[in-house]
Amino acid sequence: MLRAHTVEDVRRAEAAAMADLPDGALMQRAAAGLAAAVVDLLDGAYGRRVVLLVGPGDNGGDALWAGARLAGRGARVEALLLADRVHAGGLAALRAAGGLATRDPDDLSAAPDLLVDGIVGIGGRPGLRPEAAAALARFPAVPVVAVDVPSGVDVDTGRLDGPHVRADLTVTFGTHKVAHLVDPAATASGALHLVDLGLDPDELGPPALEALQPDDVRALLPRPGPDAQKYTRGVVGVRAGSGTYPGAALLAVSGAGCGLVGMVRYLGPEHIADTVRTAHPEVVGAGRVQAWVVGPGGGDDAGSMLAEARADGVPVVVDADALRHVDAPMPGCVLTPHAGELAAMTGVERAEIEADPLHHAREAARRWDCVVLLKGHHTLVADPAGRVRVTTTGVPWLATAGAGDVLAGLVGALLAAGLEPYDAASVGSWVHGAAATEASAGGPLTAGGVAVQIPRLVRATLNPSGSRPLE
């Protein structure tokens, strides 16, 4: 599991570590990891030109000490000092190693190979001071490595407010930070590299949010036992589609029929049911289910679809048109809005939800007393207790019509197979994104292509070695 912590958590854990270590040892660990990451990115140090943008705090100290290490390996290192006072020990080390330190931007190389952002760290406020923004603007095409976090982002919320660094690589220390994983700041972090500082997990405490990794998904995916039959594996029902959007029913059924449950039932307009059965002859009609998927393409009938599904007393995945009819707490269910749909449900402007999705996902989960899967570049899954998981799988090509219908069906299948709503939503989102990545292979995809890829992705996740289980 990848875990991210708040600034307060990190500071508490770092203080505990420093109490047991020689003075400066933690910064040296950070600087060593940062320098190694820069060398790896540049494929060497000798002869490379590196500019450090150095602010007043420990973040700047990390950059200066790393710069000293790079200079010692033959790199040409120049530090632009953006504060009256910077880390004295780091500055002395850089100069002793042959590096340049200046307050005049005109002293810097015109075309460095790399910028190191040591402007502000986890204690910085959103936005950049004018002199820092101007320094960045001098090198618009130069790759940037951010120290711990991209300067100018809101570390604990992921919000962006004013100028900020957009990094190609962020080298972070001890644990991931919320801004690395939550949009919109996550888009400014680039690739992530974590340097282990040896922080005590007990001092860090519970994470602010998590991101599933393949081993976590493997442990959560349902598998049939030796005595399984189709009913014990779970039955998921789909109420979706209308004359205007018949394809939504097909796509939701495709997601639900990915093989993770024993049976899929479809209830909807008869002419759509005929089309569904033609495309998916294994799909059957009315009967008992362990979970419902309601709303994709439902149009004017979505309200009655939702009421009928809720009357069964089983978990419901509420998607698309059915979200307009959520007017009371929905314990045990999963809501799957994108930012526009959540805006319509809450009366909050879409732009505000996109600016602070973590806050709004948590608030929605509390308001409706259920799991909320807020779709986006990094989809968030929040539960009423405040837990959040972020999905880091997926590709931009996944922003395509019908992809959400497939996701709703997949989450419904996982619910019917027995996963708790929080796990069903987060595993479903991870699998959906990973399947899309494979289906895309670097190019365009369709929602139907994602659905086809899901069983293959599940098979590969369950059997990472490539071997098949014995019959």
Question: Any chance you could write out the topology, listing elements then pairs?
Answer:
Elements: E1 2-5, H1 7-19, H2 25-42, E2 49-54, H3 58-72, E3 76-81, H4 88-96, E4 100-102, E5 114-118, H5 130-137, E6 144-147, E7 169-173, E8 176-177, H6 178-181, E9 191-195, H7 201-204, E10 209-211, H8 214-220, E11 235-239, H9 246-256, E12 263-267, H10 270-279, E13 291-294, H11 302-310, E14 316-318, E15 334-335, H12 339-346, H13 350-355, H14 357-368, E16 371-374, E17 380-382, E18 388-390, H15 403-416, H16 421-440, H17 447-462
Parallel strand pairs: 1-8, 2-3, 2-5, 3-4, 5-6, 6-7, 7-9, 11-12, 11-13, 13-14, 14-15, 15-16
Antiparallel strand pairs: 1-10, 16-17, 17-18
Catalytic activity: (6R)-NADPHX = (6S)-NADPHX; (6S)-NADPHX + ADP = AMP + phosphate + NADPH + H(+); (6R)-NADHX = (6S)-NADHX; (6S)-NADHX + ADP = AMP + phosphate + NADH + H(+)
Binding site for K(+): 59, 117, 151
Keywords: ATP-binding, Isomerase, Kinase, Lyase, Metal-binding, Multifunctional enzyme, NAD, NADP, Nucleotide-binding, Potassium, Transferase
Word description of this protein:
It catalyses: (6R)-NADPHX = (6S)-NADPHX; (6S)-NADPHX + ADP = AMP + phosphate + NADPH + H(+); (6R)-NADHX = (6S)-NADHX; (6S)-NADHX + ADP = AMP + phosphate + NADH + H(+). GO terms for molecular function: ADP-dependent NAD(P)H-hydrate dehydratase activity; ATP binding; kinase activity; metal ion binding; NAD(P)HX epimerase activity. (6S)-NADPHX binds at residues 58-62, 121-127, 148, 248, 297, 338, 405. Keywords: ATP-binding, Isomerase, Kinase, Lyase, Metal-binding, Multifunctional enzyme, NAD, NADP, Nucleotide-binding, Potassium, Transferase. This protein has 471 residues and is of the alpha/beta class. Helix content is 39%, strand content 15%. It folds into 2 domains: 2-209, Rossmann fold; 214-462, UDP-N-acetylmuramoyl-L-alanine:D-glutamate ligase (3-Layer(aba) Sandwich), CATH 3.40.1190. The protein has helices spanning 7-19, 25-42, 58-72, 88-96, 130-137, 178-181, 201-204, 214-220, 246-256, 270-279, 302-310, 339-346, 350-355, 357-368, 403-416, 421-440, 447-462, and strands at residues 2-5, 49-54, 76-81, 100-102, 114-118, 144-147, 169-173, 176-177, 191-195, 209-211, 235-239, 263-267, 291-294, 316-318, 334-335, 371-374, 380-382, 388-390. The strands form 3 sheets. The chain has an 8-stranded mixed sheet, with helices on both faces. A 7-stranded parallel sheet has the order 4-3-2-5-6-7-9, sandwiched between helices. Helix 11 (302-310) links the parallel strand 13 and strand 14 (316-318).
